[in-house]
């Protein structure tokens, strides 16, 4: 039932402009070796995200042997409101800043699915404006903290449908999955079910991230 509701919601998704917003202050969590910061997709159920966040986090826990791994669910609406992705962008950057200040040795793995990929894109300086449920950048991870982002894991990334991708500083640390026919990340794609299949990529994403830690 949850998947069917999510699938129905996808049919409503469209591009939107957005105004600058700020996130409420985040509270720093305990200091782990690796903090997995996950931004879920539009209306996606689950703790970190049923389709991507939860299975990716489980896979990372298995792969990162000998590491203490924590998680953070980006606090944002993940809905069709005009400021949704921007709120996620602000909250993600706020969380990383606070954690980095409290935990000098902590590193981060950023995970984004669908609208959550827009959130991550913006946070690393790649604007999702013009993409499905995208927004202009409202905050970016400071240059001083860039090296502490070990990996960026993206799934069904809407900016790909408008011919963009992660370039620059984070390019070599990014893996970006786009299933064939997924209309959210592939221009002209017409297989909506393809957008729901990224659980199958969780292990590959975790393997990639483990190689960057």
UniProtKB/TrEMBL annotation:
PANTHER family: CUTINASE 4, CUTINASE RV1984C-RELATED-RELATED. It holds the Pfam family Cutinase. The keyword Disulfide bond applies. It comes from the Bacteria. This is Cutinase family protein. It comes from Streptomyces doebereineriae. Belongs to the cutinase family. Keywords: Disulfide bond, Hydrolase, Serine esterase, Signal. Residues 1-28 form the signal peptide.
């Amino acid at each position: 039932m949850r998947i069917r509701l999510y699938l129905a919601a996808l049919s409503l998704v469209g591009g939107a402009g957005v105004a600058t917003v700020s996130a409420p202050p985040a509270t720093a969590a305990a200091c782990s070796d690796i903090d997995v910061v996950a931004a879920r997709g539009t209306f996606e159920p689950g703790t970190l995200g049923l389709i991507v966040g939860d299975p990716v986090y489980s896979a990372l826990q298995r792969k990162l042997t000998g590491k203490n791994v924590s998680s953070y669910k980006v606090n944002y609406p993940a809905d069709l409101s005009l400021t949704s992705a921007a709120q996620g962008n602000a909250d993600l950057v706020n969380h990383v800043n606070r954690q980095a200040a409290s935990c000098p040795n902590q590193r981060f793995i950023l995970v984004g699915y669908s609208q959550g990929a827009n959130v991550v894109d913006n946070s690393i300086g790649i604007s999702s404006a013009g993409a499905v449920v995208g927004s202009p950048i409202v905050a970016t991870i400071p240059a001083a903290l860039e090296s502490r982002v070990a990996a960026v894991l993206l799934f069904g990334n809407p900016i790909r449908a408008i011919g963009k991708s992660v370039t620059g500083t984070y390019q070599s640390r990014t893996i970006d999955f786009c299933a064939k026919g997924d209309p959210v990340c592939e221009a002209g794609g017409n297989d909506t079910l393809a957008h729901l299949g990224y659980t199958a990529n969780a292990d590959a994403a975790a393997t990639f991230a483990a190689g960057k830690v």
